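$ ./design --mode recover --in tokens.txt
reading tokens...
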């Protein structure tokens, strides 16, 4: 099997195009296959926003791993599938909580309190502020905090960032090009929430926050050489983001 990554390393642009094309293809294929599967399961099971999303994320995880194996000569090596031997997890946890809280508060003020009030925009299918109501805390922990975090990190920090990680010498504002691309792409992935009946400014708020967290996760993926710290950042940020809704409910 040909190692496509090695062949693309001779051109930065080719590496970026390959990474983005492979990642977008995985996302599109996941949705294409998950939709009919979800419809079939709905005939026998009650699926809500969270449980239905599990199916899409399953195919995202599956296709991400298959894509890595296909373009990397049948190997996962070099794409972050390892546990770092030495790492400052306490610093990571505290920094993630601080950045997530600051991003959440700033985003809430700018996008929800100010822009949503001054420039109200009707969204597709409705204008709800927030995610659909959850059924249980356990459901959120399993489907959002753990499962979604795992699948999205394998996609963005495993597949996407793994293909372009050799471009880490190219930096802007002290962050490497792979970190910027992986982090911003992760945030832009969430623009699809607009089709779920959520308000425009709430989606903008989510994209802003996920971009910030995406950059942090991508930074730790690069620093550690592993997707595990990035997964931990993702989980912690999800917990911080959901805490207000848990207190309200």
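writing sequence...
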């Amino acid at each position: 099997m040909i190692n496509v990554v090695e062949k693309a390393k001779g051109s930065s642009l080719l590496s970026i195009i390959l990474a983005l094309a492979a990642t977008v293809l995985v996302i599109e294929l996941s949705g294409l296959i998950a939709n009919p599967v979800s419809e079939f399961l709905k005939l026998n099971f009650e699926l809500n926003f969270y449980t239905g999303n599990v199916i899409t994320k399953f195919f995202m995880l599956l296709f991400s791993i298959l894509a890595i194996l296909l373009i990397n000569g049948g190997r996962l090596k070099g794409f972050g599938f390892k546990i770092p031997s030495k790492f400052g997890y306490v610093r990571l946890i505290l920094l993630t909580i601080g950045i997530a809280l600051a991003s959440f508060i700033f985003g809430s003020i700018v996008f929800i309190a100010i822009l949503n009030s001054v420039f109200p925009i009707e969204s597709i299918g409705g204008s709800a502020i927030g995610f659909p109501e959850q059924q249980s805390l356990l459901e959120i922990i399993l489907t959002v905090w753990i499962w979604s975090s795992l699948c999205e990190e394998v996609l963005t920090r495993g597949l996407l960032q793994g293909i372009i990680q050799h471009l880490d010498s190219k930096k802007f504002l002290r962050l490497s090009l792979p970190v910027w691309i992986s982090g911003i792409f992760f945030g832009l992935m969430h623009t699809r929430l607009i089709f779920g009946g959520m308000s425009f400014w709430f989606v903008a708020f989510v994209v802003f926050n996920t971009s910030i967290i995406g950059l942090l996760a991508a930074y730790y993926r690069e620093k550690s050489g592993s997707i595990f710290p990035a997964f931990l950042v993702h989980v912690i940020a999800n917990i911080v983001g959901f805490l207000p809704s848990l207190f309200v409910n």
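exit 0
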